[in-house]
Amino acid sequence: MTMSYEQAVAALIEAGRRLDARGWAPATSGNYSARLDDGSVALTVSGRHKGRLTGDGIMRVDLDGRPLTAGKPSAETDLHLALYRLFPEAGAVLHGHSPQAVGLSRATEADGITLAGHEMLKAYPGHTTHAAEVRLPIVDNSQDMAVIEAAIRPALLVPGAIPAYLIRSHGLYAWGKDVDEAERVLEATEWMIAAELAEASFRRAWTR
Amino acid sequence: MTMSYEQAVAALIEAGRRLDARGWAPATSGNYSARLDDGSVALTVSGRHKGRLTGDGIMRVDLDGRPLTAGKPSAETDLHLALYRLFPEAGAVLHGHSPQAVGLSRATEADGITLAGHEMLKAYPGHTTHAAEVRLPIVDNSQDMAVIEAAIRPALLVPGAIPAYLIRSHGLYAWGKDVDEAERVLEATEWMIAAELAEASFRRAWTR
Amino acid sequence: MTMSYEQAVAALIEAGRRLDARGWAPATSGNYSARLDDGSVALTVSGRHKGRLTGDGIMRVDLDGRPLTAGKPSAETDLHLALYRLFPEAGAVLHGHSPQAVGLSRATEADGITLAGHEMLKAYPGHTTHAAEVRLPIVDNSQDMAVIEAAIRPALLVPGAIPAYLIRSHGLYAWGKDVDEAERVLEATEWMIAAELAEASFRRAWTR
Amino acid sequence: MTMSYEQAVAALIEAGRRLDARGWAPATSGNYSARLDDGSVALTVSGRHKGRLTGDGIMRVDLDGRPLTAGKPSAETDLHLALYRLFPEAGAVLHGHSPQAVGLSRATEADGITLAGHEMLKAYPGHTTHAAEVRLPIVDNSQDMAVIEAAIRPALLVPGAIPAYLIRSHGLYAWGKDVDEAERVLEATEWMIAAELAEASFRRAWTR
């Protein structure tokens, strides 16, 4: 499911435009990547607004993070590459920032939240019923990517783990076999967090 | 009020674009259909993002669900077809997913909620005054469409029933004589749920 | 500040598109009008979606509501015309529906709410400071326009009255010398209601 | 990082369109400026909707506020010019109005709020870690710009001060070396306020 550099550039530009339209790409936050035919990775460069990316906002690195084209890769490149190394089937990684997901991560000190009973769980690859519960892992933030990566890795390898995790006070990582699937996982996870918030608001109102 | 396949394709693509812009079509959720001139049904295929449908994202089935063109029909095809069989005047069915409606459905174990006193009630066909109340039925979710269909059917046949119902933890079904009317019912129902949530928030704030 | 029929049609179509994009024109709700050069009024016809109006969605009536062109005028035509008769300087009337404004109107039985201290008050014509308070009148809904009109009229004639009022469980009326000014009044009023809701949410959170 | 008048006009029109799309430019609120090559300032004129600016909605003034082209400068011109005089590196100033930021400012009588632990803090120039806290100053509103300017100035000169402040019941000022950086600061600040509101909502729900 890998793609050419040209396909990756077009797909990541479009994904950025859509994430920004949903309010998930403020300032220059976020970074997006896709695995290419030759095993290298196309990745957003640092410091660009993801809602209005152009071709020069995307560069190529190898799986060890060495630049193959000009540009300064995103500070979080290592988190993308760790996912590609860990999951050979991963073809794209998207990292977005919604106020809801980050607000949720700050409201708890737990290492994750449970999402249960949602039909939307079926958006996760391999999930075929709402009658299930999954764990969205939450890992503490760090400016050292190796620290985040080591802390989150065990949760990603648990059987039945979903292809997403949340960095506390920071944002959501989601991945999939291609950009469409990664965006599907991201949208579904954000949507369930918004639905949980609406549920809580109705519960509070009805139990006054 | 039926339409040609070409008209249905155009109308369903546009409806998907609008529902997605309102945040009601995350991931690949949702499925939309329209009854055609020849008695068959145009229906979204499984697994496409409804905000960016193209013509090949829509197929034809007969009223028993047998494919008349290539493609895998949506898993919820049977719920659409049950509505067309039950209501000869139904020309289109839309199924959307807002965080508000799903949050509401999860905050209660009741088999419905009452919407009362809204001017917006007049968006439902045959309703001519705000001085009324209607029941929006809520049915438990299932991966067996026949179970959902059997459970919801009585509520749909109650005199004065509105052309909409909510599947718990899942989403809203709405229908009408054509795509425009189905979308009107969907928008009005979602809007009233949002207004009820805003009302609850103001009430809580004012009674602190 | 009156305009030609062609100018009015273009301005009302654009206003509808913008109000719908903000979520204030669900289903076929809303009706918009503008006073024309010849003293007649251009007005949206009944039953169209205001987010995608076309020229045939707008008709002309005289100040007594007699159709001057083909079409069924909006059910609320009389409320528009009453404003034009009452306020000779009024050149346009917009009627929108936000969940926030309607939620607010349902959370209170009062005949209005006070908006105080907002810089946004300066959006109302003739208001030059935030250090003021205004009354947004709320009138009970009715299917008899004459009942609404008689009930709200005294509040509109109070010295310092703002060019807006809210019909309970229904929506907001706003007017101005032209479509731009009416839209300015509508946006400012909706924005202040949203700000009051956000204020209440922060207060609740901080006083837990 | 200064720019030509033509570049400034294009950049300010685009910024207005984007701020309005996010709901931060209701009615005719907001004013935007950019420092030009020749030391003068391009600035939005008074009374225009910032979501649909055209070239004639922008004029030039010198650093003392004297008009260099036709037009009535925004009432808040002096706040823009004070920032350019205080911070030689400032190349653009944006002033937006979100319901969230204004709601927050009305919910407290404090002279600021603390933003702590957000990855988004790195959107502020010179900030390189989330493990920090910054103060967003809040100043009382006034119709006398000199009063606001004198009251806020000390907070702006505190070491580590962020390039943003909030006027109570009014809106947010943000600045940067160019329009992109000013918009980045504005988006990041608004986003963190929205995240704090979501956090508070989840906390309330979970501690019922």
N- to C-terminal distance of chain A: 51 Å
* Net shape of chain A: globular
Strand proportion of chain A, as a percent range, falls in: 15-25%
For the largest beta-sheet of chain A, the strand count, sense and barrel status come to: 8 strands, mixed
The ordered H/E elements of chain A are HEEEHEHEEHEEH
Q: What top-tier CATH class of chain A fits best?
A: Alpha Beta
Task: Please provide a brief summary of the model.
4 copies of one chain form a homotetramer. Chain A contains 5 helices and 8 strands; from the N terminus they run H-E-E-E-H-E-H-E-E-H-E-E-H.
Question: What can you tell me about this protein's structure?
Answer:
The structure is a homotetramer of 208-residue chains. The first copy, chain A, has 208 residues and is of the alpha+beta class. Chain A has one domain: Class II aldolase/adducin N-terminal domain (L-fuculose-1-phosphate Aldolase). Helices cover 37% and strands 19% of the residues of chain A. The first copy, chain A, is built from 5 helices and 8 strands, in the order αβββαβαββαββα. The first copy, chain A, has an 8-stranded mixed sheet with strand order 3-2-1-4-8-7-6-5, sandwiched between helices. Chains A and B meet through α5 of A and α3 and α5 of B. Chains A, B, C, D: Catalyzes the dehydration of methylthioribulose-1-phosphate (MTRu-1-P) into 2,3-diketo-5-methylthiopentyl-1-phosphate (DK-MTP-1-P). Chains A, B, C, D: Pathway: Amino-acid biosynthesis; L-methionine biosynthesis via salvage pathway; L-methionine from S-methyl-5-thio-alpha-D-ribose 1-phosphate: step 2/6.
